[in-house]
Amino acid sequence: MSTFYVANDHAGLQLKAEVAQYLSSAGHTVIDLGTNSPASTDYPDYAKALADRVAAEPGAFGVLVCGTGQGMAMAANRVHGVRAAVCSDTFSARATRQHNNANVLCLGQRVVGVGLALDIVNVFATTAFEGGRHAARIAKFDPS
Ligand code: RB5
User: Fold this and answer.
1) What is the pLDDT of residue 135?
2) In this predicted model, what pLDDT tens digit does every residue of 110-134 receive, in sequence order?
3) C-alpha 133 – ligand 1 centre gap (Å)
4) What is the CB-side half-sphere exposure of residue 102 using CA atoms within 13 A?
5) Ligand 1 atom at minimal distance to the Cα of residue 110
6) How far apart are the first and last CA of the chain?
7) DSSP type of residue 115
């Protein structure tokens, strides 16, 4: 089981709650960095807070939810050591774990329904990085 940080802006509030509940039920440790208010907020603040925690804790993962997932991914990827991927399908979620060793999953509450989103989370949380040639490629943009 892993540690999953979760965070969201106002446009990701409901889906974040579903994701947190799902991951917790699956046995993971879930740390919620907010927001837990429907008031309008700025997604980069939450992306940065989560990305800093994931980058500082090898083996930890993150799930960021906003309206589209896109802004969260852009902001999170500015933090060294974070590899954030927007996924709206399970194929991408599997591939980004196997090939990119993604450690942050970004979801769009305005893009995917809850059922699909939880399938994506399940695939992301249960798929291992393949290493090998993929590790050498990652090292080209994300040296340790
Ligand atoms: C908020 O309206 C929206 O812009 C934000 O949640 C996100 O989709 C940005 O990428």
Assistant:
1) 97
2) 999 999 999 999 999 999 999 999 9
3) 35
4) 27
5) 8
6) 24
7) H
The pTM of the full predicted model, rounded to 2 decimals, is 0.98
Q: Which atom of ligand 1 is nearest to the CA of 70?
A: 10
Helix (H) or strand (E) holding 61: strand 61-66
Whether the predicted pLDDT of 144 surpasses 80: no
Say if ligand 1 is within 6 A of residue 79 CB: no
**Percentage, residues of the chain above pLDDT 90:** 98
CATH level 3 topology of 3-139: Ribose 5-phosphate Isomerase B; Chain: A, (3.40.1400)
Mean pLDDT of the residues in the chain? 98
Protein residue whose Cα sits closest to atom 3 of ligand 1:
67
Q: Which amino acids are annotated catalytic? A: 66, 99
54 close to 106: Cβ distance less than 8 angstroms: no
With a 6 A CB cut-off, is 107 part of the ligand 1 pocket?
no
